[in-house]
Amino acid sequence: MKNDNTITIQNLKDLDLLVQQIRRLEQANERPEKKALQQYMSVFDNSGAPAIIIENDMLVSRANPKFEELTGFTKTEIEGRLKWPQFLVEEDRERMVRYHTLRRIREDKAPEEYECTVVTKTGQLKYIYMKVGMIPGTRRSVASFTDITSLKLTEQALRESDRRLSTLMGNLPGMAYRGSNDARRTMTFLSQGCRGLTGLDPAVLTGADAGGYADLIHPDDRKMVLAVIQKAVSQRRAYEMVYRIRLADNDGEKWVWEKGVGVFSPEDELVALEGFITDFTDQKRSEQALVQENIRLRSSMKDRYQFCGIIGKSPAMQQIYEMILKAAASDANVIIYGESGTGKELVARAIHDTSDRNRRNFVPVNCGAIPEGLFESEFFGYKKGAFSGAHVAKKGYIDMAEGGTLFLDEVGEISLHMQVKLLRAIDQGGYTPLGGNEVLRPEIRIVAATNRDLKMFVQKGLMRKDFFYRIHIIPIHLPPLRERKEDLPLLIEHFLKKYDKQDHGELISGRVLEFMNRYEWPGNVRELQNVLHRYATLNRLDLVDTDAHEPEGRLPDFRGPIEEQADVPDFRTAVRRFEKALILKTLEQSRWHREAAAKRLGLPVRTFFRKLKALDISSA
Ligand SMILES: Nc1ncnc2c1ncn2[C@@H]1O[C@H](COP(=O)(O)OP(=O)(O)OP(=O)(O)O)[C@@H](O)[C@H]1O
């Protein structure tokens, strides 16, 4: 505090200084001169905080303008007329009188600072925080106030909303939580719903030496739960999952549904996880019952001639349908063996579509078409700027398949080096997108496919044993078309219906059908599909005869497209038709082995696959 007239008491600290100053003058035995006193009184009056001087008999002898403002009484109404307790609510009076008396017996006996409630002239209540000190050598005290009404009201509103929230949470059919992001899932708060859900009192799980919530999670689900949380938190998004918990006292288990989110500080540090967990047992049980019922119904269906878009009613295909349903009901990895064109991808899709992953992605990857150098970026993705040319971040296949199915077609083409990386990614180790630093732990199911003998690959050292055993859990062997000729009529009918706008179906004579029946179908269903597609669009039936004898009247052979297409409208169309015919012919010669066809044409595998797509051959 400075010693001039411009000084004001801005707050309680200034009041302290004022009292100390008076005390010093007293101690120095220098009676404050009239002028100095006047100065102090002026400071008192100009104080930014309400202040009063209280006499021994509790009469207020001086009040500053701020106090007038606070209470609505004027100086004339207050000074020498009103006693301090008269400004207080009934409940506070006794306490204030006690402090007042104590302070005069021994100053340090009474608290210096406290809260009380003042009643204004109009009867309004004001919450105040006050500080009181004795004026040395006198029986007077000086009190200064801070109006904390709005603070108190906010506090009350907060308490009320807290109360309402906890009533609400207490009555919810589940438990709300706040906890740390650690492997034990330490909880700092659990709503009362904890008892109903887990059989445990919230205090048991939140106390200082409580075991973490992770202990309640079923051991088979724990890894998945932690991985889902880590992944969501690292991507700043909410997590949601269904898993099992074990109940207290070995009282069985429950399925629960959890949804939560990471809470971040303004400095962007993860401070907690908050969310909600609710009983999901009934829903899960009815879902499981439905899947079982589905399996039962489907298994009991006799003579199924098609399943999830797969055509075939041979006993071999019936067995495949059973296998698909069994694989769909489990979460284990699947490997599909079969020659090219037997429908391995169709089977993989059917497993995905009938499993409870069907709301997430099915991501097909042709491992044979990815050059070694691009493998990592294709599978793991990359961040923007990870390498020159990475102008935008790109998701990898693994991330795209999160929660769903990753279909690894031609899995035998994956190099040993990449097998290690993939294995680590899908097991505990996780993976990091190129140019990134967070470790992602995927939750995917792998369905792989191959037309090679993978056991032989392992023996020859072309496939790692651990990788093989990781993917070879449920094997499905798709029979080639020549071993299920009884499916031919159904397939022919199906494809002609699909492609034939002019209804050539009737034009396929008995002799041609017979020929088709004897034909070996090296390209399996894909070849049959392409032959019929061409037949429907070009009115030509091309088959490369192997051992079968052609029917009388010969099927038309492959002919040069230019002579045949005399009505070519332009150069580009002509080139396109030529390319298509050439590729089809080469595919036939390579028994529909696409890599072999690419090699024969001297094209890089990727380019060849692009062409197949552009010319609509792969989907034909
Ligand atoms: N049983 C079937 N019913 C209907 N269409 C089928 C059937 N089998 C295969 N197809 C069709 O044949 C084509 C090839 O099938 P798919 O791609 O699933 O075979 P694949 O075994 O994965 O072949 P590849 O090993 O060459 O990748 C697809 O267009 C598919 O729709």
From TrEMBL:
Record keywords, A-Z: ATP-binding, DNA-binding, Nucleotide-binding, Transcription, Transcription regulation
All copies of domain PAS, residue ranges: 36-109, 161-236
Top-level taxon of origin: Bacteria
InterPro entries referenced in this protein's UniProt entry, alphabetically: AAA+_ATPase, AAA_lid_NorR, Homeodomain-like_sf, HTH_Fis, P-loop_NTPase, PAS, PAS-like_dom_sf, PAS_fold_3
GO MF assignments: ATP binding; sequence-specific DNA binding
Domain Sigma-54 factor interaction: 310-537
Organism: Desulfococcus multivorans DSM 2059
Entry protein name: PAS modulated sigma54 specific transcriptional regulator, Fis family
Biological classification of the source: Bacteria, Pseudomonadati, Thermodesulfobacteriota, Desulfobacteria, Desulfobacterales
SMART domains associated with the record: AAA, PAS
Any one of the GO BP annotations: regulation of DNA-templated transcription
Listed PROSITE patterns: PAS (PS50112), SIGMA54_INTERACT_1 (PS00675), SIGMA54_INTERACT_2 (PS00676), SIGMA54_INTERACT_3 (PS00688), SIGMA54_INTERACT_4 (PS50045)
